[in-house]
Amino acid sequence: MDTSRLTGALVISLTGAGLAAIALRGFATGTAGIADVVVTGLTLLFGIAFAVTGPIGYRTDVESRHLLRIAGWNALGVVATSAVLVLVYSFQVAGGGSVVEPLVAGALVVAVSAFAHVLIGFNDVRRIRARRLVKQRQKAAVMNRFVRHDLRHAAQLLIGYGERLSAAGDPDADGGDTGTGSDLDLGRRIADIGADLGDTQSKIRVFDDVLERDDERTAVDLAAALEDRRSDWEEEYPDGTLETDLDEGCTALAGDHVDTALAELMDNAFEHGGDPPAVAVRGERTDGTVRVEILDDGDGFPDDEMALINEDRTETQLQHSSGLGLWLAKWVIEHYDGSLSIGDRADGDGGVVTVRLPAAGG
Q1: pTM of the prediction?
Q2: Which one of 50, 96, 166, 323 is most buried, counting C-beta atoms within 10 A?
């Protein structure tokens, strides 16, 4: 059960139930004059509207956190207006005055305020969704450029290798070589291209999930996630070293793909590290946030790369970063309400990637 969604719907419906109860009580005790009937009737209509909006909102495609956000604006309107009305009523009573039907009249004022705040909440959510749509389009543009580049490059290589294989099998062709060594070398290169295309396809699949699906957040032990992949890096970089120093509390509130993001960052650190590469991972938990640093001993990040990933500059066709892995890691981390930044190590001997994610648990 989605507790956030249920809570948001209940807050809105309970507001309606309270208003309707006050209005029905007003009708039951009797109304005096047209004005009293109108005020009580409007309060009842607002109550019914709020009571119905809760279940409708629960069944719509509005995201749970957005529904909860709207409910929060609704609660703010009710609490703030009620507090003001109580102060005004207390002031009038203390001065010897009196207020006719304070409960029903006050309920109508609260209803109008709550309705206005719900509209503010809807507009707030609309702006959030509009900003996210813009970011999604930017992500899709970056992904589209990388995919087109990879496919074009792979096609060119395959055509070239195909021509060389044809020439190798033709004894009359200039430079023809029927040796199996050359064929094996070309076969290995073609296999590498296939592996690269498969890796690109996997990245696209993760990108689609991040773009389309708001998966459930769970506690992810980042230290365990790194240890699960340690053997892969040790096999690929047998001369490299990996040191990890993460506090026990480095458990993030994230989802399935955070492992993919960390793996992309580690792959990048090993690939661009020294010869042999030395990678270090540090992690700590402070103030509800898990902070992880991945340090390599390579040449550091190019200035243009840092400006783009850190959003100091906009990605364009003519000015763009060199790889998809960093972008994918950044998008996944941001999907889980975290942040990613890159820079140079304090000692100037390599690059550092800093990841921040919400901490899980208390």
Answers
A1: 0.57
A2: 50
